[in-house]
């Protein structure tokens, strides 16, 4: 990667909030880390990133998941 490409990547990604670890994401949802792990196992919950053995969550994916859980009445559940 040349220097101009690296500079363009840092500019385009420079406004993004850093990714969250499991604890910060669990706190955001008001759930335990174990609940987030269960969600990942069954394919529920927000999208997540695997960085080696580490799991991280992009804040925008957490907000999007939260928005997708919004319902107007109990008949929608």
Quick synopsis:
With 77 residues, this protein is mostly helical.
Structure description:
- By secondary structure, this protein is mainly alpha-helical.
- The chain has a domain at 21-69.
- It is 51% helix and 8% strand.
- It has helices at 3-13, 22-29, 33-42, 59-68; strands at residues 49-51, 54-56.
- The N and C termini lie far apart (48 Å).
**What Rg is obtained from the alpha carbons, in whole angstroms?**
16 Å
- Quote the average pLDDT: 85
Helical content (DSSP H or I, runs of 4+): 40-55%
Number of helices: 4
**Largest sheet properties:** 2 strands, antiparallel
Span between N and C termini?
Answer: 48 Å
Strand composition percent: 5-15%
SS-derived structural category: mainly alpha
Q: Which descriptor suits the 3D outline?
A: globular
Low-pLDDT residue spans: 4-12
Walk me through the topology.
Elements: H1 3-13, H2 22-29, H3 33-42, E1 49-51, E2 54-56, H4 59-68
Antiparallel strand pairs: 1-2
What labels would you give this structure?
mainly alpha, 4 helices
